[in-house]
Design a protein that fits this description.
Shape: globular
Strand order of the largest sheet: 1-2-3-4
Number of strands: 12
Strand content: 35-45%
Structural class: mainly beta
Number of helices: 3
């Protein structure tokens, strides 16, 4: 990294890809999104999801930029998420997960319907990075502590049952009895 900083080189758009596509998003009253430092955007094969703290997530068609719908609503009640929630998208299962508190997520389908609240074990799920795919949640604990001796976990959704894990040393710990 130090060498790269000492010898900066020009980076061209052509170095990043073969094609650049500009998709202007439709600007209807209900589709306007205030963009700021806490804005969120997720792009899938068919949709562009854009959100900001005080507004529900907006869904746009990826090919046309046309506003399609809002996903859920911002609030503190059942089936609502806070505007500062992180967004995880399971493109295979067509699900969107908003973190609502610690290891709890509100789950919506791509049509904007609230489906369920998913709760993972706090001691495993809260500590690392997360990925959702094909009705599974995967987490990687970047810093192990006294709460876990494992580095990675896999959970079946929507119930949050842990289906697999990887110990810190790659060996499953022996069961001990008290």
């Amino acid at each position: 990294v130090e060498t790269a900083f000492q010898n900066p080189q020009e980076l061209l758009l052509s170095d990043l890809g073969e094609k650049l596509t500009y998709i202007p998003l439709e600007t209807l009253e209900e589709s306007l999104v205030k963009l700021g430092s806490s804005s969120k955007m997720v792009v899938t094969d068919k949709y562009i999801f854009v959100g900001e703290n005080s507004m529900p997530l907006s869904c746009f068609d990826r090919s046309t930029g046309k506003f399609l719908r809002h996903i859920g609503s911002v609030g503190q009640g059942p089936g609502e998420y806070s505007g500062s929630a992180s967004i995880e998208v399971d493109e295979v299962a067509k699900r969107i997960y908003f973190s609502v508190k610690g290891s709890r997520y509100q789950c919506y389908d791509f049509e904007g319907n609230f489906l369920s609240t998913v709760t993972m074990p706090d001691d495993h799920f809260f500590m690392g990075s997360h990925h959702f795919s094909d009705n599974m949640a995967y987490t990687y604990c970047n810093i192990a502590n006294a709460a876990t001796t494992h580095r990675a976990f896999a959970y079946q959704l929507p119930d949050g049952t842990c289906t697999d894990s990887l110990s810190l040393d790659g060996i499953t710990p022996k069961q001990t009895t008290a």
